[in-house]
Amino acid sequence: MSTLASSAEPLTSAVQPLAANLVQSVDWLAIAPPTLAAVVGLVVLVADLFVGEHKKGLLGWLSVAGLAAAALLLLPLLDGDRSTFCLTGDADVCSYTADRFTLVIQFLVLGGALLAALLSVTTLKDADRTLPEGEYWFLLLSSAAGAALLPASRDLATLVVALEVASLPAFALVGIRHGDRKSSEAALKFFLSSVTATAVSLMGISFVYASTGTLYLTQVADRIQHVDGQLHTLAQTGVVLTLVGFAFKTAAVPFHFWVPDTYVGAPLPIAAYLSVVGKAVGFSGLILITVVALPSYADVWGPALAALAALTMTVGNVGALRQRTTRAYSAVRLLAWSSVGQAGYLLVPIAAAAYSGDAERSVGSTVAYALMYAAVNLGAFAVAALVGRTKTANRIDDYRGLYATNPVAALLLGFFLLCLAGLPPGIIGLFAKVTVFSAAVDAGLGWLAVVMAVNVVIALFYYLQWTTLLFRAPDGESTAHRVPAPLTAALVLTGVLGIALSGAPQLVLRFADTGLF
Questions:
Q1: 92 neighbors 218 (Cβ within 8 angstroms)
Q2: How far apart are CA 322 and CA 339, in angstroms?
Q3: Is the pLDDT assigned to residue 291 strictly greater than 70?
């Protein structure tokens, strides 16, 4: 008996250190922003069971407050990089990292979700209880939590989980209007395209894992350079499939077919959310895959992304140019096609990173452009939501003479459209385009810079056409637009942000000079 006890003691002492080594410490402050968004989503879902119908509006304000608090939790993280969920034997290999890139994208995501939430408060009130408020807010907060998690992901498994947490609630949000044929069709198209993208991405990631034996991005970057000759083709195939999957998420042509119908069928705040936060998710994942995990395969993804950028901006701008002003939902469709064209501009610096000696600076150009685009595009959707309260068809012609009925909204929309076009007084739009253009030229992609210049000229036509319509004499009797407080707050925030960035463009353009990683 004593012999058995004495032999068990060394075994127990050996197991205890092993168990201790498997326990990972959690930096709760680093993961606080996405965690708080997820927790508030659960609180809203449970509270919905106990809140009376006449008090459902409180759930919206609770969600707005939760997103604002999650964004404020980014401030304590500015003092330096933080990582958590790291390998016990190597503290430099982690699953979650809160560095400058992470914080900037999280600010974009949570800020975009906050503005979409402000628009949603008015939309849900106007819907007069035809939309399930508890489910709506839970899905929006869940998607925002996943979108905030993605830029911090530093292993392929966490990246895919974050991508799906951001995407799956969005399917339901697009189709949340029960009995609405357009909404159901939009949700189905969005779901099928996204599921296809996920399947292709997972296939590619599995090939990369089979070739390298690791899921951590930094280890993938090191090991994929030394893949055995027999696995080289498998690794290349994995790289290509992973890129194709993320191209779906960014709405790059030819994987863009779901965008116009999805934007039209979804509630307008969700279309605004997808146009900004959805793109931030796709592009941040694409940056992590290419620049962080696969820099040695730049000769594969560089030309592919350059071709996608040229194709995407051209198809997007031509699609926007073809929109008839009298067609139902033509304003939303134009913004949808415009967002496809803007995705092409966002792809240019990522493609340039493959040819540039300073990949961080190229990525910084994409992030700077994304920040500009997020502010002004959300502002344009806010004005569209205002006009859509009285003109449900939301035609471009419905904006004729808007200055006569609501001069502030007309001036703001004109400013936002000029920013997207890159014309004064939208200085930030002009400087952001110049930054992207410079990234292509510096990388030796002169042909891509020429394609971009041609597309900027094409875009000028439809942006200026819509802008001039705002100041024409209205047809018939003009309709005044009452602006509710949440919608006013969204307009003020986007307007102030757009004007501030035009007055001090260095606030975001510095990322193009200093890099983010």
A1: yes
A2: 15
A3: yes
